[in-house]
């Protein structure tokens, strides 16, 4: 797999999600939401919930409902 430069808010594939570490995934989450990142093990289907019930998706690189 060719390595590409991942930035905050970058959408990733499920394969990239599996290959990245917790620290690498955390760097993709905008700073405003990083405190809510529960770690890779607790991200059901590549997303996690924020305090207000919305969800951040690694596959979309943004909010799940947007």
Any descriptors?
66 residues; alpha+beta; 3-stranded antiparallel beta sheet; 17% helix; 3 strands; 2 helices
Report on this model:
The chain is of the alpha+beta class and 66 residues long. It is 17% helix and 12% strand. A three-stranded antiparallel beta sheet has the order 1-2-3, with no helix packed on it. β2 and β3 (62-63) form a beta hairpin. The radius of gyration is 11 Å and the shape is globular. The termini are far apart. 12% of the residues are buried. The mean pLDDT is 91.
- The total beta strand count reads 3
Roughly what is the average pLDDT, rounded to an integer?
91
Reported for the largest beta sheet, the result is: 3 strands, antiparallel
Strand order of the largest sheet: 1-2-3
Q: So what's the overall shape? A: globular
Uncertain spans: none
Q: Round the Cα radius of gyration to an integer and report it.
A: 11 Å
**Amount of beta strand:** 5-15%
> What portion of residues is helical?
10-25%
Straight-line N-to-C gap = 29 Å
Kindly give the count of domains. Answer: 1
Based on secondary structure, the structural category is: alpha+beta
Order of helices and strands: HHEEE
How many helices in DSSP terms? 2
Task: Summarize this entry quickly.
Helices cover 17% and strands 12% of the residues.
Describe how the helices and strands are arranged:
Layout: H1 14-19, H2 22-26, E1 47-49, E2 55-57, E3 62-63
Antiparallel strand pairs: 1-2, 2-3
